[in-house]
Amino acid sequence: TIEGFKIIRRELFLNVGLAIASVGVIVFLTVASPVTSILITINVAFCIVEILGFMFAFGIVIDSVSVINIVLAVGLSVDYSAHVGHCFMVKGGDDKNARALEALTDIGAAVLSGAISTFLAVVVLLFSSSYVFVTLSRQLALTVILGISHGLIFLPVLLAVFGPKPFSSASEHGDDDDDDVGKPDKIGETANNGSDNNGSDNENNSSNNNSEHDA
């Protein structure tokens, strides 16, 4: 009915808005970067808008089942973006393009594996004859595909353009390698100094023994 549709529409806007706001607050507390949190939240909001667009293309109506799945999509889609955003913040350096690339190199494969496993979990429901299962599987498949696309493609571009400076504790790529390269030299120098000291001690002992023998 028309009255029922008005209630569902109001509940859709209210619940999705509250979910996105909650995601923004939680991401801010976990990532600890206002700019990165805003970019992740915008990323999730765009993903939800695109899901609604594909729902219209697929003929999925706005009812109690689809509204619940849309709210669930907010929590599922933020997972891919949050990992990439946090990994970006722990990469040091002034080149934001290099930091975004390093973040994708480190965590991109893990995020993609999680998306594939989630998609495989719901793909079997696409062939169901139940309206609830078909609607659920289609919306979750859209969530996974759009969420991983935003997390691995759209968000890195935003971070490369608008991304903030890294954490103060972040180290630039290659600093650890430089430290490791320097350690053997220090060890070698210590060993050489030790051998030189041992050699000089032996010479002193030999000279003392010769003096005693002459006496």
Q: What are the defining features of this structure?
A:
215 residues; mainly alpha; elongated; disordered C terminus
Mind explaining what this structure looks like?
The protein has helices at 2-31, 34-58, 64-89, 96-123, 131-162, 175-214. The radius of gyration is 30 Å and the shape is elongated. α1 packs parallel to α3 (64-89) and α4 (96-123) runs antiparallel to α5. The chain has 215 residues and is mostly helical. The chain has six helices and no strands.
Mean pLDDT: 83
Number of DSSP strand runs = 0
Oligomeric state: single chain
Unreliable stretches covering 5 or more consecutive residues: 174-191, 208-215
Q: Beta-strand percentage?
A: under 5%
| Shape call | elongated
Order of helices and strands: HHHHHH
| Secondary structural class | mainly alpha
Largest sheet: none
Amino- and carboxy-terminal Cα gap: 121 Å
Give the proportion of residues in helices.
over 70%
Number of helices: 6
Rounded to the nearest angstrom, the radius of gyration is 30 Å
